[in-house]
Amino acid sequence: FHPDTDLSGTIARLFIYPVKSCAGIEVQQALLTETGLDLDRAWMVVDANGVFLSQRTLPRMALIRPQLKSDEMVLKAPGMLALHVAIDAVEAPATVTVWRDTVPAWDMGAIAAQWCTDFLGQPCRLVRFDPEVRRLSSLEWTGGQEVTNQFADGFPLLVTSEASLQEFNRRLAAAGHDPVDRGP
Q1: Using CB atoms within 10 A of its CB, is residue 72 exposed (0-12), middle (13-18) or buried (19+)?
Q2: HSE of 153 in the Cβ direction (CA atoms, 13 Å)?
Q3: What integer is the mean pLDDT of 90-111?
Q4: N or C terminus of the chain with fewer C-beta within 10 Å?
Q5: pTM
Q6: For residue range 117-165, what is the model confidence (pLDDT) as tens digits?
């Protein structure tokens, strides 16, 4: 950190991902909390053993599109009726694993579990991060700083630049691949 260096930037687009590994939502503004942007990766889909699921093994998760309303999150997916999940209600305590961390969480109930199971084709449950829990990012990644997050892989905020996206797309084109967008 160099206090005499003037760093500034402009946010081109802002996204939150309410459910880990599902589609994101572009927002015009977001509340920044100790654990990142409010409601970002506050929910997660877990398997029958409580271990997190992601697009790495279930690419179909990218088709789950959350929407945030004033008091609920609505999940939509192709061929499925919308699932309405109250933002401030949970059903039962749970213990879940995200990477090397096993943490207390809140199960969102049988209806949410059945919806996720039906769409993803394997037994799974939807859980909510327990706000009373303090999950730290890996100290080796944060230079020894204690940085809290919810169900995010490593950091409470992830930032990409226009320049890095352009460079990535240049490399994709050189390898004969289509460019990517910074969208959700």
Answers
A1: middle
A2: 7
A3: 96
A4: N
A5: 0.87
A6: 999 999 999 999 999 999 988 888 888 889 999 999 888 888 888 889 8
